[in-house]
């Protein structure tokens, strides 16, 4: 690592002010991605602004048929929340399956979606539930938030403050995980919402995406066999030492069937 200025503001306003005053600052949430990149010198900010002391960015509230989670809320708190378990059990299950206990107690929902790792779990929930991402400047529809590999719709200096998930009629998340990291080699969230069925896939491609053919099939017949035989072309999917694009395409169908079966 190398020298940089470390700052720990007590308010969101102060954090944004500090970021604007620095030539090249980085916000840090749980640090699960930034710290390794600092160690490897893949990121070399002049200042690191720690959001961990900002109380207004933490907490979970349920009301108006929605679950709202502060950006600095850790995965373990989402997984153990009785309110989340009652309102959206699939969201609590998803959080419980992220990483190991240390990661779940350090990593945050805001950090996860802002980093937008292609194998992260939360993007599948944000898209499947048609969530709303609240920032220091505006609100962004979940469908519009993730724009590409490690890229989002956020502008420089913009901070995610909370994420609001509409409560679905029912939902389930299934993932084929890497046995070491527990990242999703493929993860599929299926949700029956007020606006229809939504199927969101993470881990398979450079960015989370929806499978409209499966959504249309499940809208006609909500049974596991409805998605059987619906193929996702492997051409745009990820290929690495863990799985080929063709295998990931196969896993999308398997995980989708399992998710529907869990909801039946």
Shape: globular
Reported CATH architecture of the largest domain: 2-Layer Sandwich
Between the first and last Cα atoms, what is the distance in angstroms?
A: 51 Å
The mean pLDDT is 96
- CATH level 1 name of the largest domain: Alpha Beta
Q: Which strand order do you get reading across the main beta sheet? A: 4-5-10-6-7
Biggest β-sheet, characterized?
A: 5 strands, antiparallel
Low-pLDDT residue spans: none
CATH topology of the largest domain: Uridine Diphospho-n-acetylenolpyruvylglucosamine Reductase, domain 3
Strand elements, count: 14
Provide the domain count.
2
Total of helices: 11
Binned, the helix content reads 25-40%
Q: Secondary-structure element sequence?
A: EHEHEEEHHHHHHEEHEEEEEEEHH
Find the structural class using helix and strand composition: alpha+beta
Gyration radius from CA atoms, angstroms: 18 Å
Question: What's the helix and strand layout?
Answer:
Blueprint: E1 5-7, H1 12-21, E2 25-28, H2 34-39, E3 47-50, E4 60-63, E5 66-70, H3 75-80, H4 82-87, H5 89-96, H6 101-106, H7 109-115, H8 122-128, E6 132-135, E7 139-141, H9 142-145, E8 146-148, E9 151-152, E10 160-166, E11 170-177, E12 184-193, E13 196-202, E14 209-210, H10 212-220, H11 245-263
Report what the structure shows.
The protein is an alpha+beta fold and 264 residues long. The protein folds into 2 domains: 5-50, Uridine Diphospho-n-acetylenolpyruvylglucosamine Reductase, domain 2 (2-Layer Sandwich), CATH 3.30.43; 58-263, Uridine Diphospho-n-acetylenolpyruvylglucosamine Reductase, domain 3. Helices cover 33% and strands 25% of the residues. The protein contains 11 helices and 14 strands. It has helices at residues 12-21, 34-39, 75-80, 82-87, 89-96, 101-106, 109-115, 122-128, 142-145, 212-220, 245-263; strands at 5-7, 25-28, 47-50, 60-63, 66-70, 132-135, 139-141, 146-148, 151-152, 160-166, 170-177, 184-193, 196-202, 209-210. The strands form 4 sheets. A 5-stranded antiparallel beta sheet has the order 4-5-10-6-7. The model has no long low-confidence stretch (mean pLDDT 96).
């Amino acid at each position: 690592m190398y020298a940089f200025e470390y700052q720990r503001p007590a308010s969101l306003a102060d954090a944004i002010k500090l970021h604007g005053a620095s030539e090249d600052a980085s916000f840090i949430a749980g640090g699960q991605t930034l710290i390794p990149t600092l160690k490897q010198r893949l990121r070399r900010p002049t200042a690191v602004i720690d959001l961990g002391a900002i109380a207004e960015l933490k907490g979970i509230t349920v009301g108006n048929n929605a679950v709202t989670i502060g950006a600095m809320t850790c995965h373990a708190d989402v997984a153990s929340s009785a309110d989340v378990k009652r309102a959206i059990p699939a969201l609590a299950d998803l959080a419980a399956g992220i990483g190991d206990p240390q990661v779940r107690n350090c990593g945050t929902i805001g950090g996860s979606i802002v980093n937008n790792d292609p194998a992260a779990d939360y993007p599948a929930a944000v898209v499947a539930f048609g969530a709303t991402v609240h920032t220091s400047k505006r609100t962004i529809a979940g469908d519009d938030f993730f724009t590409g590999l490690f890229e989002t719709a956020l502008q420089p200096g913009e901070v995610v403050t909370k994420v609001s998930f509409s409560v679905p009629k029912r939902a389930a998340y299934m993932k084929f995980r890497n046995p070491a990291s527990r990242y999703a080699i493929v993860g599929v969230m299926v949700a029956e919402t007020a606006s229809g069925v939504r199927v969101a896939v993470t881990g398979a491609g450079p960015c989370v995406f929806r499978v409209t053919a499966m959504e249309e099939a499940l809208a006609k017949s909500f049974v596991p066999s409805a998605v059987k035989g619906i193929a996702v072309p492997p051409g745009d999917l990820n290929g690495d030492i863990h799985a080929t694009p063709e295998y990931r395409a196969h896993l999308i169908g398997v995980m989708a069937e399992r998710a529907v079966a869990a909801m039946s």
